[in-house]
From TrEMBL:
Keyword Oxidoreductase: no
UniProt xrefs under InterPro entries: Chromosome_partition/occlusion, HTH_ParB/Spo0J, ParB/Sulfiredoxin_sf, ParB_N
Superkingdom field: Bacteria
Cell wall biogenesis/degradation found in the keyword field: no
Basic and acidic residues: bias regions: 7-17
Chain spans, region Disordered: 1-47, 281-346
Residues covered by the ParB-like N-terminal domain: 36-139
Protein's UniProt name: ParB N-terminal domain-containing protein
Compositionally biased residues, Low complexity: 324-345
């Protein structure tokens, strides 16, 4: 009796194995030697004691693979340079280790977490000083400045895949291994005028210790430095005229914060008489509390509740309530209904979280990230997914 082709063969398992092999080959650059992650050991001389953002990098490796080969050293050469680690290295060699990692410890940890079966390597045999080479590699790794990152992010968001779909900021952040806020802040920098973009670059250069800024400088010749978050959250929301006014010194930082909350067609330099009002809006404190509204006629008048410390701790998760000041008239629970001549009872109202001026979906997202905590943002995401 003839057998049918494929009899007793698990064709589905074979197809899955071929697909997995093809996927692994796609994740590894072609033409470079490779090794299994378990054939590599971290260098005992690695200066980086703690590896950060391994989960984010592992997610990137699962989708896009490892684009940069790890530099590795044969164990015998490593032992010649650092004989004090001979026992530890030889023990790992007995377990199957073929190379000691020189550059790429974070990539190795992420590759193990991502489940990669092969990683690209670059074998180096002539290393005068591992420690100096590691210092050179870290110090000479010059990253993109915030504006260059913004242009790269925007270019990636504008790309269209084979299905005609563009990446969202959330999808892009997962692909590159950063937060969505990081992407949105960088993209917002593209709305700045060139002089403010240069101020962001100068601030970044100063943080990288690549730009010397005198501690004491005259106001006329002072270099404008602008942190990324301030530039993205406040100054990118200003109109071009208001940004230019800020560069000229006609708009103070406090005024810029207030004006940025208005629609661009309503933004203007505050008049001299309104400067105090702007300052009050920008830095309102508990010393000048806003007057509480009187209860409407259709609403029952509630007696004032005195909140004790224990009650406040019990209801810490409840909405924040504005409490009456010591000058606010109160009445006891047994007091008669007040007459027209007496002061009306004060009803506890929720503390406003802020006013959001919606000009675009991106501005709405940035405002929400400012006003809400991380827990509240996650709760909002759950509601929006319904």
């Amino acid at each position: 009796m003839s057998h049918k082709p494929g009899l007793k063969r698990d064709l589905a398992a074979e197809r899955a194995a071929r697909k997995a092999a093809t996927q692994q080959a796609r994740l590894v650059p072609q033409g470079l030697p490779t090794a299994r992650p378990d054939q590599l050991m971290p260098s005992p001389e690695n200066g980086r004691k703690e590896l950060h953002k391994i989960d984010e990098l592992a997610n990137t490796l699962r989708t896009d693979g490892m684009n940069t080969a790890m530099t590795v050293i044969p164990p015998d050469i490593f032992i010649e340079l650092y004989p004090r680690h001979k026992e530890a290295v030889e023990a790992r060699v007995a377990e199957g280790v073929l190379f000691v990692v020189h550059h790429g410890h974070r990539r190795l940890a992420a590759a193990v977490k991502a489940g990669l079966t092969e990683v690209p390597i670059l074998v180096r045999r002539d290393v005068p000083s591992l420690r100096i080479a590691a210092i050179q590699e870290n110090l000479q790794r010059m990253g993109l400045n915030p504006i260059e990152e913004a242009e790269e992010f925007q270019g990636a968001l504008d790309e269209v895949d084979d299905t005609g779909k563009r990446l969202s900021q959330r999808e892009l952040s997962k692909r590159v291994g950063c937060s969505q806020t990081y992407v949105s802040h960088r993209v917002a920098l593209l709305r700045l005028i060139p002089s403010l973009q240069q101020a962001v670059i100068d601030h970044w250069l100063k943080e990288q210790q690549l730009l010397e800024v005198p501690e004491r400088d005259s106001d006329a010749n002072a270099r404008l430095l602008l942190p990324v978050r301030d530039a993205a959250v406040t100054y990118s929301r200003l109109s071009v005229d208001m940004q230019e006014a800020f560069v000229r010194g006609e708009l103070s930082p406090a005024q810029a914060t207030t004006v940025s909350k208005l629609p661009t067609d309503q933004q203007a330099i505050p008049a001299a008489g309104n400067e105090s009002d702007c300052a009050a809006i920008a830095s309102a404190g508990p010393e000048t509390p806003a007057p509480l509204p009187e209860p409407r006629a259709s609403e029952p008048q509630a007696s004032t509740v005195s909140t004790s410390t224990n009650q406040h701790q019990t209801h810490a998760s409840a909405p924040r309530l504005r409490q009456p000041t010591s000058n606010t008239p109160t009445k006891s629970a047994t007091a008669p209904t007040p007459t027209a001549a007496s002061a009306p009872a004060v009803r506890a109202v929720e503390e406003p979280r802020g006013v959001i001026v919606v000009r675009s979906v991106e501005d709405l997202a940035l405002n929400i990230l400012e006003l809400l905590t991380e827990v509240e943002v996650e709760q909002l995401k759950e509601h929006l997914s319904y």
